[in-house]
């Protein structure tokens, strides 16, 4: 009897262990799927949301001046076409990254990053939002952080153009010790009382959290809206990761 009880106990313990291992593997797989879905959602939201809003603004501006200033309307239509082509190029890049097993894998030389912020500022200015960009010295960023900083700026400017009724925005990137600071401040009407952050701001928070950084957003001191992100430089710099150029 004692032998039978001992054998039953061993068998029961082994069965429970196998069940716990299967449950743990299932939870890991579910978390991996959820994380991948969140990554895809962030990339597509940043790309599609920004580009579509920009194209809508350009199309609206072209319609308003079509009869009064045909030459300006043609210029806006050219900008609209260029934005569409750029969106297709960027979509190909995003889909290529999403298909890759390495999310920090090689990116095309013209991929979005801090170096392309002046191009982003020009596109936003053409859509009606005057943007100034200041990038501090010594910002040789790892590739993943380089893209994240760009996406934070892109989403913040898109929100300023779409929601804030802003005419201008200032973008500042600087190094503060072992931290990268990204600050975007617009001159719009600021948030309404009781506002809740939308998908764009939540996406920024998720991106910053991946680097164990911090982000705050809300009314700016002189009116308008401000996004202030701090991202650690040391946690993402590895021997195998080259700075972005």
TrEMBL record:
Reactions this protein catalyses: ATP + protein L-histidine = ADP + protein N-phospho-L-histidine
GO terms, molecular function: ATP binding; phosphorelay sensor kinase activity; protein dimerization activity
EC code(s) of this entry: 2.7.13.3
Residue stretches making up the Signal transduction histidine kinase subgroup 3 dimerisation and phosphoacceptor domain: 36-101
Top EC category: transferase
Pfam families attached to this UniProt entry: HATPase_c (PF02518), HisKA_3 (PF07730)
Residues in Histidine kinase/HSP90-like ATPase domain copies: 149-234
Keyword line: ATP-binding, Kinase, Nucleotide-binding, Phosphoprotein, Transferase, Two-component regulatory system
InterPro entries attached to this UniProt entry: HATPase_C_sf, HATPase_dom, Sensor_HK_TwoCompSys, Sig_transdc_His_kin_sub3_dim/P
GO cellular component entries: membrane
Name of the featured protein: histidine kinase
Organism: Acrocarpospora macrocephala
